[in-house]
């Protein structure tokens, strides 16, 4: 049985970043007396400066570190600083780039990590992995620990770009095909699916899939999306791998990233598109899935993202190679050009 951890606290409230000292003490009681590394990026320092100033005032031994990229080297630089300067806790304040770098640096430095997201673009805020660039063209998913605490200010998230919130929706809805692939893999290998992890991931999917509130800027929806993304991360922690949240649709997204970096599509949008295609390849009816994505105004027309027919076909044919150890529907169906071209034409 996989040994797993859970965040010590999860707080989702309006205006919570305005009194962070009280909240952070709930996560780490002694944090006010500790040397704390606060990680963010220059753009957020300008936009969210009042929160950062208040945080540093409440944490007298804290120091601010600005990152420029979500790279492995950047995370190692921060981890080195943690060890050399004796930091006792690390706070990530920002989007996915900041959170992944801070999370991995804290993991390497073996100190508690608290997540303060400013947007909800994927389930990295609670997942036991960090996606970091190894070099200009290579990105890798690295195992680490889930946060000690997760604190989300609904008011801050409501001001996040709509496209980033849509990406968070896409990452959640992609569990529709990921869970199918997980069962397929378990059957192929003669393993069992972790029932509890499966249930939590399915709950995350259902909370968005059957949610009546479609206004991305409503406070109710922000809370629902936050909970869904956290559940997605916790499902991975419980399972001991990313299978509850990642299947053939994610392999397609990885293939686009690795083979066609010129295609500028957010991760959540890529896996949403991938889910529709995976659903068809799985022999399931994709109409309900497409209707749900369209209800959130998520574009699953590949041409709308600059993905031509040739790129689409090639990305799917190379998808399995991005994670060779992963068994999905792609190992069982024909990926001949004619098959993929027909699906492409359906989507366009």
Task: Fill in the keyword field for this structure.
single chain; 348 residues; alpha/beta; Rossmann fold; Dehydroquinate synthase-like, alpha domain; 2 domains; 6-stranded parallel beta sheet; two-stranded antiparallel ribbon; 8 strands; globular
Topology of helices and strands:
Blueprint: E1 9-13, H1 20-27, E2 36-40, H2 42-47, H3 49-58, E3 63-66, H4 72-85, E4 89-94, H5 96-109, E5 113-117, E6 129-133, E7 139-143, E8 149-153, H6 154-158, H7 162-173, H8 175-189, H9 195-209, H10 219-239, H11 248-259, H12 267-281, H13 287-295, H14 309-317, H15 337-347
Parallel strand pairs: 1-8, 2-3, 2-4, 4-5, 5-8
Antiparallel strand pairs: 6-7
Helix pairs in contact: 4-5, 7-10, 7-12, 8-12, 9-10, 11-12, 14-15
* Number of structurally distinct domains: 2
Low-confidence stretches: none
Helix content: 40-55%
CATH superfamily of the largest domain: Dehydroquinate synthase-like - alpha domain
- Fill in the CATH topology of the largest domain: Dehydroquinate synthase-like, alpha domain
* N→C terminal distance: 45 Å
Tell me the Rg in angstroms. 20 Å
Shape: globular
State the oligomer: single chain
Helix segment tally? 15
Strand segment count: 8
- What are the secondary-structure elements, in order, as H or E? EHEHHEHEHEEEEHHHHHHHHHH
- The CATH class of the largest domain turns out to be Mainly Alpha
CATH architecture of the largest domain: Up-down Bundle
| Biggest β-sheet strands, sense, barrel | 6 strands, parallel
Strand order of the largest sheet: 1-8-5-4-2-3
Strand percentage lies at: 5-15%
Look at the helices and sheets and give the structural class.
alpha/beta
